[in-house]
Design brief:
Length: 264
């Protein structure tokens, strides 16, 4: 669906992790819906590619290369976003890393900490920087991209699973705190999303468990009630719904977008 809005009525949406994967697809969907965009990630080249595609929809796009684990860079991101657009209506906390793969007792502490720094601390820092202006205006939607791995085991993925489990509690508590100010906070739990990161996970699963990559992929497809992988566009459509006025009574929710691989 493409929405045509006057410039004065456009939503302003900030997306982290927008240089590739789900983040790039989210940016394209939001641009097609008529949102002005702030795009953040560490990969400046990737951000510019995402921005160029979004601008073809006639929307305004601000690119801010950002390491979301650095409080100073996050503060700069917020200042540049508000200086350009005066507000952020929708914040999509999409940045995340896969972290190391293997039995927990074989993992390095630094790799464990880095996974938390990006996947959890980054959500905290970006939300803390952008939510005050939402609270002041009594309006805003914060969307956090989690994972079904935060709700079910997957061999070799202890650090990643732990960070995604943490986001469930973060979402619910933040929704409770922000709700009285008219700000909604929701989580999307994708699962087995087709793309380069899943290809890496499939290879790690195959190598670690002594099975073929085809077998690992087939297992993932078989676990889903719909017997298919989830597409990035599926996640983008869910985010558009949570950003819209069609979901004004929804907060603290954990929306499964995983083809039925997890139903709780």
């Amino acid at each position: 669906m493409r929405w045509s809005r006057p410039v004065s009525e456009r939503r302003v949406t900030l997306i982290t992790g927008a240089s590739q994967g789900i983040g790039r697809v989210l940016a394209a969907a939001c641009a097609k819906a008529g949102d002005d965009l702030i795009l953040a990630a560490r990969n400046e080249e990737g951000l510019e590619e995402t921005a160029a595609a979004a601008r073809t929809e006639g929307v305004d796009v601000l690119v801010v290369p950002t390491d979301i684990t650095d409080p100073d860079q996050v503060d700069r991101l917020a200042k540049q976003a508000l200086a350009r657009f005066e507000r952020v209506d929708v914040l999509v906390n999409n940045s995340g890393i896969g972290g190391p793969s293997g039995p927990m007792w074989e993992l390095d502490l630094e790799d464990w900490r880095q996974t938390f720094a990006v996947n959890v601390d980054g959500v905290f820092l970006v939300s803390r920087a952008l939510m005050p202006q939402m609270i002041e205006r009594s309006s805003g939607s914060v969307i956090i991209i989690g994972s079904i791995t935060g709700k079910r085991p997957l061999w070799g993925r202890t650090p990643y699973a732990s960070t995604k489990s943490a986001l469930i509690g973060l979402t619910r508590t933040l929704a409770e705190e922000a709700g009285r100010y008219g700000v909604r906070v929701n989580l999307i739990s994708p699962g087995f999303v087709a793309g380069p990161r899943l290809d890496w996970v499939i290879k790690a699963q195959a190598d670690g468990r002594g099975i073929s990559e085809d077998e690992a992929k087939a297992e993932m497809e078989a676990e889903a009630a719909l017997l298919r992988l989830t597409q990035p566009e599926d996640v983008a459509r869910a985010a558009l719904f949570l950003a819209s006025d069609e979901s004004t009574a929804i907060t603290g929710a954990d929306l499964n977008v995983n083809s039925g691989a997890v139903m709780y």
